[in-house]
TrEMBL record, chain A:
Residues 31-400 form the Luciferase-like domain. This is FMN-dependent oxidoreductase (Nitrilotriacetate monooxygenase family). FMN binds at residues 103, 157, 228. One of its GO terms (molecular function) is monooxygenase activity. It comes from Actinopolymorpha cephalotaxi. The keyword Acetylation does not apply. Keywords: Flavoprotein, FMN, Monooxygenase, Oxidoreductase. Belongs to the NtaA/SnaA/DszA monooxygenase family. Pfam families: Bac_luciferase. Gene3D superfamilies: Luciferase-like domain (3.20.20.30).
UniProtKB/TrEMBL annotation, chain B:
This is Alkanesulfonate monooxygenase SsuD/methylene tetrahydromethanopterin reductase-like flavin-dependent oxidoreductase (Luciferase family). FMN binds at residue 58. SUPFAM superfamilies: Bacterial luciferase-like. Pfam families: Bac_luciferase (PF00296). Residues 34-306 form the Luciferase-like domain. It comes from Actinopolymorpha cephalotaxi. One of its GO terms (molecular function) is monooxygenase activity.
């Protein structure tokens, strides 16, 4: 295989991660192969498949309130999930190298607690912890917490920044050489005041001594998912990897170029921030077989009922009387705060419901689509569909052409949905020389090609 | 003569042991206290003794000898890992022993603790518990900066101290109530995966807990389905009337620190009285006696072990709990004596680890078995089952209607 990419540059090494299938309609629970999304055995099997395939890390999303629609708990998708820290710590026991990444929001937690949880996870996994910092959450979720949902959107973002800086200060309050544990002299600690911190800012008024000594990675690897201008800037300044939604060549390349270009002003190189889009896949023995199966999967993901519920999220009104196999409603969406769907990220994506409805109507008319057919058309289509050879070539192509540095793969079946990819696609990528055949290091920072942290840190990153 | 009731046995794991100089014991793994292998080995050792459970100590603030804040000592263990994560890390590599981490209530969110312990129950397949701890220290409140805490003065029996304690433990009681409701907020058969109707869950079997109290309002339901045990084991350490009342109301196991049989009898009577006052007289509530133990094959060697550690630390070791120094056989006698006063089990705090932990599992346990008062093997798959506690009915299951 050629060592050079189509653009003539040395071939980039691809980063791959596995996202445990979660609480959304892309997770197909009606398939007979679909197992538990809660029992530990499912996480164990999923993690071990990812590690067998030498993936960089496993990723868990977060949700702190069950989603609702029309004033009722949404019951058509997988509902419920276990606690992120607990699952990741348990997975550390049954894996050796796989990175362990969790989304932990900064609104309904406190820095001291989150810092000690991530530092503990990093110790207990031998340096494999990663934190996906989410920057906002809603008052609906706040009803499960004593803090409540009082933070305004702009304050939540500010809080996220200050939250992260504060946790860094805590992580860095131990340099890593303080524990002497000399039984002869009786000196356990080289520094009597190690861990001392003080933080007084718009969000936090805290002081004391952090009680978790420096962990193998120093801090967890930091992931972010920001897509807005502000989010991209935040990631460029602070993150080690960014989770994007742009898994295509057309959308991926501009995003990639934009984000990487922002790094210079923070004194960072392009290698210090990886761009990892979330991606789905459907495999078949041939491309035609995969396409056929992909259609089946899409219809499993978008039942008639699911299509109506999707439409309600944009229309912001009860559409239960409509026939999913019939045309779109002729009434317009209700504009304003979404009262129908709560706790769903997708709702926030429809910034201009009337315009979106207009586009959907035009698309449905032009292609003669029913409600269900339209929803299959406009919601989350599969990223990679084809034979293992086709999918491997596409992934490699996207990475070499700088649409991404790799992908976070989301199978549609729990827990064994990754197996085919691990067993059939990964060997081809390895053969092409673009994916590791074994782990070169022990920590997640090693897998991601990130240099070890230096202590103390450069002022620009504090 | 009827066969004696089996005795329940736990160990409390803390760093290198409960003696402040334990880390200097020749066998102490002082530079491994933050490693997963250390904790895995300890919990597996407890499991070789078929102990009911291990508790994993924790606190929010750094270890200190001062009530007013961190001290500047460098001759004792400082630094620790989050106990819930330690418990989760050891759960998949053990099969029998219960795992019961400390989680503090005063500054944390009940929703988070509820889902963490529920998940610990999943990853341990029904062996999870929780030791509830309040955090009355102002310097610990400053780590969070969200609130102040009612100050408990140095005279614990002064009315202001009692009032402050009541406030902290009333909040803890509300906290446990929120956590327990969240554990029940999914009925056991809520997940239906009904392909015909397209419904993954039966939403009638998911319940808003709608807790409204002085400290919390929590809506629910939990995001974690009801854990394997239904209700993981709730435990608490208690030294005086206010926490006895709390534990009698909220816990499944209360750890007490009776120094002799007479005191044990008094405490048990008070706990039982409070249990009845809380309307729980028909529910099992275990009262375990806590003891710090320094063990050796003969009494003199045990005394020398402790004396050596005391010399290293420069003071005679004392504890809230009684300190036992002697042989496993002597300890067995002591436990039998205390048990006669109504304690249903014991939690032993090893003075040094691994030495005193192994003396429990390899010395005390065989002795108790010889006396016919301790199990030969795990006889129930869940922690509750082992303690004779049934899997509780779901408080919401009997109601009609369910969630909206």
């Amino acid at each position: 295989m050629s060592q050079n990419s189509p653009t003539g540059k040395p071939r980039k090494q691809i980063h791959l991660a596995a996202h445990f299938p979660g609480v959304n309609n892309t997770t197909v629970w009606s398939d007979p192969r679909s197992g538990s999304h809660i029992e530990f055995d499912s996480f164990l099997r999923f993690a071990q498949a990812a590690e067998r395939a030498k993936f960089d890390f496993l990723f868990l999303a977060e949700g702190l309130r069950l989603r609702e629609q029309g004033g009722q708990i949404y019951d058509l998708d997988v509902v419920g999930r276990p606690d992120t820290f607990t699952i990741l710590a348990a997975l550390a026991a049954v894996t050796d190298r796989l990175g362990l990444a969790g989304t932990i929001n900064s609104t309904f937690n406190e820095p001291y607690e989150v810092a000690r949880q991530f530092a503990s996870l990093d110790h207990l996994s031998g340096g494999r912890a990663a934190w996906n910092v989410v920057t906002s959450w809603d008052a609906f979720t706040g009803e499960n917490f004593r803090r409540g949902g009082y933070l305004a959107q702009e304050d939540r973002y500010e809080r996220a920044k200050l939250f992260m800086r504060t946790t860094w200060e805590l992580f860095d309050s131990w340099r890593g050489e303080e524990i002497v544990a000399d039984k002869e002299t009786g000196v356990f600690l080289a520094d009597a005041t190690v861990g001392t911190f003080e933080r007084h800012d718009a969000q936090f008024d805290i002081r004391g001594r952090f009680d978790v000594p420096r962990s193998p990675q120093g801090r967890p690897v930091i992931f972010q998912a920001g897509d807005s201008d502000e989010g991209r800037e935040f990631a460029a300044a602070t993150a080690d990897a960014i989770f994007s939604r742009h898994a295509t060549l057309e959308a991926g390349r501009p995003f990639y170029a934009d984000v990487k270009a922002r790094l210079t002003k923070y004194g960072r190189t392009p290698e210090q921030l990886l761009i990892l889009p979330a991606a789905t896949f459907v495999l078949g023995d041939t491309d035609a077989e995969a396409r056929e199966y992909a259609d089946v999967v899409r219809r499993q993901q978008v039942s008639g009922q699911t299509a109506i519920r999707f439409l309600e999220q944009l229309w912001n009104r009860d559409l239960s009387e409509y026939d999913p196999d019939g045309p779109l409603p002729d009434v317009d969406p209700v504009v304003g705060e979404n009262a129908i769907a709560r706790g769903r990220a997708s709702v926030r994506m429809y910034r201009d419901p009337l315009q979106t409805a207009k586009e959907w109507r035009e698309l449905a008319t032009a292609k003669k689509l029913s409600i269900r057919e339209l929803m299959i058309e406009v919601t989350g289509r599969q990223s990679f569909v084809g034979s293992p050879a086709t999918v491997a070539a596409e992934i490699d192509d996207l990475v070499q052409r700088d649409a991404s540095d790799g992908f976070i793969l989301v199978p549609h079946i729990t827990p064994d949905g990754l197996d085919d990819f691990a067993d059939k696609v990964v060997p081809i990528l390895q053969e092409r020389g673009v994916f590791r055949t074994d782990y070169a290091g022990t920590t997640l920072r090693d897998h991601l090609g990130l240099a070890p942290l230096e202590v103390p840190l450069p002022a620009g990153r504090r | 003569m009827p066969a004696p009731l089996p005795l329940h046995l736990a160990v409390a794991l803390e760093g290198a042991g409960w003696h402040p100089s334990a880390w200097r014991d020749p066998r102490a793994r002082a530079d491994e206290l933050l490693s997963p292998a250390y904790w895995t080995d300890l919990v597996r050792e407890a499991e070789t003794g078929t102990l009911d459970l291990v508790t994993v100590e924790d606190s929010l603030g750094i270890q200190t000898t001062s009530p007013d804040g961190p001290d500047d000592r460098v001759d004792q263990v400082r630094g620790r890992l989050d106990a819930v994560l330690i418990a989760a890390r050891v759960a998949p590599v053990t099969r029998g022993v219960g795992v019961v981490p400390v989680a503090t209530v005063t500054h944390t969110e009940p929703f988070h603790v509820s889902k963490a312990i529920a998940t610990l129950d999943y990853v341990s397949r029904g062996r999870a518990g929780w030791q509830v701890r309040v955090s009355p220290r102002e310097w610990e409140a400053e780590l969070f900066g969200r609130r102040t805490v009612p100050a408990i003065g140095s005279d614990l029996d002064a009315p202001e101290s009692v009032a402050a304690m009541e406030e902290l433990f009333d909040e803890a009681a509300d906290y446990v109530e929120v956590v327990r409701r969240l554990w029940d907020s999914w009925e056991d058969d809520a997940e239906i995966r009904d392909v015909a109707t397209g419904r993954f869950v039966d939403r009638e079997k998911l319940h808003y807990i709608d807790f409204e109290g002085r400290w919390f309002s929590v809506r629910g339901p939990s995001i974690v389905p009801r854990p394997p045990q239904g209700q993981p084991l709730v435990t608490a350490l208690a030294h005086r009337s206010v926490p006895y009342r709390f534990a009698a109301k909220a816990a499944d196991v209360v750890f007490v620190t009776a120094h002799d049989a007479e005191e044990a009898g008094r405490i048990v009577a008070e706990v039982r009285h409070e249990q009845a006052a809380a309307g729980r007289q028909d529910e099992p509530l275990h009262v375990f006696g806590d003891l710090v133990v320094f063990l050796a094959d003969d009494e003199r060697a045990a005394a020398e072990r402790k004396a050596h550690l005391d010399a290293l630390s420069g003071t005679d070791f004392t504890s809230d709990a009684p300190v036992f120094v002697g042989t496993p056989g002597g300890l067995a006698d002591r436990l039998e004596d205390l048990r006669g006063a109504g304690l249903t089990g014991f939690r032993l705090r090893p003075g040094t680890i691994p030495h005193d932990l192994e003396a429990v599992t390899r010395g005390l346990v065989p002795e108790l078995r010889r006396r016919g008062i301790f199990r030969e093997r795990y006889d129930a798959p869940t922690l509750r089952g082992r303690l004779g506690l049934e899997r509780p009915a779901n408080r919401y299951a009997a109601t009609t209607g369910g969630a909206r």
